Amino acid sequence: MEQTLVLVKFDGVARGLVGEITSRFEKTGLKIVAAKLTRVSQELAVKHYPADREEFLKGMGNKTLENYAQMGADPVEKLGTDSPLEIGKMIREWLIGYIQEGPVMAYVLEAPHSVELVRKLCGHTLPLIAPPGTIRGDFAFDSSFLANTAKRAIRNMMHASGTVEEAKYEIPLWFKKEEILKYRRTDEEVMVG
Ligand code: ADP
Ligand code: MG
Known about the structure:
The chain has helices spanning 10-14, 18-28, 42-48, 54-71, 75-79, 84-98, 114-122, 135-139, 144-149, 164-174, 188-192, and strands spanning 2-8, 31-38, 104-111, 158-160. By secondary structure, the protein is an alpha+beta fold.
């Protein structure tokens, strides 16, 4: 069994989409083993988006540069730099603000391959590119271009751990051990055997 950290960020909570989103996860066979609606402190925000995770920062920067290239926009003109790391650092500051805009719904979801499964259901980081049928594709339209022009984070409603390693780092930031519960769902036997 694999666990993953999933957040419905404030745009999803504010739009009343928590039920719809939760229902999609549950129906796919993902088991909720921890859940809470919570406000995010500055301390948690900076730990969740750590400054020293260069790979994460560069990843965000590169995704942004790809989106700019597709749209024929010049990153230097729009953001003042075309360095993936520098762009990543800029986005990180916006993200720390975004995650604290209002309450977020946090879960730990469990299933075989839960990390990959949740990422698939959430869809691409940029809602504009996320296919229909995914949460981001069905309920949002934001792009890097729109977000960066307004100097803010992309409103894509979801955070989901990107790798098993990331999940192992993130889950203890959000939940104490005793908040993560063990139980059986009645459909487990049919789905997993
Ligand atoms: P994901 O959430 O799909 O794992 P990342 O970990 O790369 O994506 O990025 C974290 C979050 O940063 C995204 O969910 C999004 O809200 C925000 N973000 C990513 N790229 C940009 C960007 N170019 N401009 C603004 N916000 C961004
Ligand atoms: Mg990520």
